[in-house]
Amino acid sequence: xxxxxxxxxxxxxxxxxxxxxxxxxxxxxxxxxxxxxxxxxxxxxxxxxxxxxxxxxxxxxxxxxxxxxxxxxxxxxxxxxxxxxxxxxxxxxxxxxxxxxxxxxxxxxxxxxxxxxxxxxxxxxxxxxxxxxxxxxxxxxxxxxxxxxxxxxxxxxxxxxxxxxxxxxxxxxxxxxxxxxxxxxxxxxxxxxxxxxxxxxxxxxxxxxxxxxxxxxxxxxxxxxxxxxxxxxxxxxxxxxxxxxxxxxxxxxxxxxxxxxxxxxxxxxxxxxxxxxxxxxxxxxxxxxxxxxxxxxxxxxxxxxxxxxxxxxxxxxxxxxxxxxxxxxxxxxxxxxxxxxxxxxxxxxxxxxxxxxxxxxxxxxxxxxxxxxxxxxxxxxxxxxxxxxxxxxxxxxxxxxxxxxxxxxxxxxxxxxxxxxxxxxxxxxxxxxxxxxxxxxxxxxxxxxxxxxxxxxxxxxxxxxxxxxxxxxxxxxxxxxxxxxxxxxxxxxxxxxxxxxxxxxxxxxxxxxxxxxxxxxxxxxxxxxxxxxxxxxxxxxxxxxxxxxxxx
Length: 552
Known about the structure:
The chain is built from 4 helices and 22 strands. It is mainly β. Strands 3, 4, 5, 8, 9, 10, 11, 13, 14, 16, 17, 18, 21 and 22 form a 14-stranded antiparallel β-sheet that branches. It has a two-stranded antiparallel ribbon with strand order 1-2. It has a two-stranded antiparallel ribbon with strand order 6-7. A hairpin with a 3-residue loop joins strand 4 and strand 5.
């Protein structure tokens, strides 16, 4: 939830000495109270505008203009932040409402310069370049045995014969634009728009059922659109394409003052978070590049993109990024939190519980359609001893269809990779009970005594696509651990719900998460207060990515 400033009534940040009411956090707790309406109508509206007309020019652009006389306008930039609020009483002294909207728009222009193949080079004609390209199939096959250099023969006229050009490469040329100038290097320049939109809505209703009973409801909707940086205009985005994020939160609260010293409150909430990173070229049909239709089958549509060619020498701007990466993340959280507060003399007692269900449907890949890198090594003069080789071009390797092999480098800038994601549907269940006594021992001393007990359920997956490790089992595929051939090795992986693990969870439920919370406040005199505390806190299981169903 990202509430607008105008929808916040008050907030409180707690980073130490927290009572047992709070659990399942890693650093602190932020409590935000949203505004409610009053008997009088109130409203507001605003607009903040920034654009190129109102902005001063950049220093270096202005300096170049003064020196050369050429007009250099400020780069494109438009930003709007706008919104408003309205609140009042639907029924005076009984039912109140408040609504807030906040919007944000940003558009900027960025200039990109890189090297793309010329029209002649796209047909295999590299005669305009000083670097020679060599035929990788012309290498002397007896070079290793005879101890002679494994040399290659240059293509005649520095031109690759049309019959040698790979048909997949020809098809993928549609992803790479023609130059914008006649230069051989840094011959493509364009201005690409970037920025995004944000919208936030908050609506709240408060109603007094009786003098002792109140209810409230709040709905928050927040969405963020990050525009793609697509300098080529072909879907080979820089780093990533369009990202859509939105979160919806519904909270309901009921409070009943049973007696002047006893209060019951029940809070329930539903949260829905969606994050989509969508390639422009998703749902690609592999038959368009001459591949079998069966290649479409195993790849989810959002991940199915054309093969990404990576030119590690000529173009370090666009194609070597993970611009066609895809993410689909749908998170849903249900929460129920009842609490009873009782005041008895010097004791303020609080007891309650929390039940939370967390669902995470997720898939991700950086190279769903595949990525192959080219660095010119196949068209260099030598098949071995690359340090002494001459010539060679990454784009010539591409036209011939000779890429680099698979490797483990993150980002795959110098390797080949194809990763098809396995979508998973994970679930966690969290339960907790707590009790606290804020004891006012005297006018100078207050003790905070509390205890929280948590059951943090580990992940399960809708179709049991999880594994667990059993250290006492005999490994089914590895032998020789005792130093002799065929001897047994301990430990093996099994699917959940089989073998020793009869549950759907990949780890056993921990039943020892006991969290004492002890604090004190002592007023030494009218100007000095000493505070201290001790507590045990357990961070939420969702931050342990190693046992997440997607990683498994």
